[in-house]
Write a structure and sequence with these properties.
By secondary structure, the protein is mainly α. The chain is built from 7 helices and no strands. About 70% of the residues lie in helices and about 0% in strands. The N and C termini lie far apart (about 125 Å).
């Protein structure tokens, strides 16, 4: 084995590990069990194992997969952040509506307090008030108290 091959191998190794591998390869080559080509293949391993170094050393297919994964990760974290903020605001609105509902003395008062909100609690109260107004007799409604109908009078058998 000539010296130019060893010099080339030593120049490529450059690091302490490469120098150690060169020394071991020199010992094995002097014994005749390893060729210079085997040693050159073993020292062609990448030395820059940082994420950017691995990206630079990668093939085009691997680079495109890495870019796709980076984009998918960015989209995932963005959706998570947006939904977390949305849930935070929804919880605050629900707590406020529940406090208003707890402090209301009647269904009508709760509906008036929460009628302008678009929250699910406001919608539920509006639907409950509409159902209650359809279900109660006309004589019990505040607007119809003056007009008494037969449905509101006492049964004929009661004394």
């Amino acid at each position: 084995m000539d010296m130019s091959a060893w010099d080339d191998l030593d120049r490529r190794s450059g690091t302490l590990i490469g120098a150690g591998a060169t020394a071991i390869a020199l010992l094995l080559a002097s014994a005749g069990s390893v060729s210079a080509q085997d040693v050159a293949i073993a020292t062609d391993l990448p030395r820059d194992l940082t994420p950017w170094g691995m990206y630079q050393a990668a093939d085009y297919v691997v680079k495109s997969v890495m870019i796709g994964l980076l984009f998918a990760s960015l989209v995932t974290w963005t959706v998570w952040l947006a939904k977390s903020i949305e849930l935070l605001f929804a919880k605050r609105a629900a707590r406020r509506a529940m406090k208003t509902l707890a402090s209301a003395r009647s269904l009508d008062e709760a509906v008036r307090a929460l009628s302008e909100t678009k929250s699910p609690i406001g919608q539920l109260l509006r639907a409950a008030a509409a159902a209650a107004s359809r279900a109660e007799p006309a004589c019990l409604r505040p607007s119809d108290r003056r007009r008494r109908s037969s449905a509101c009078s006492a049964p004929s058998g009661a004394s």
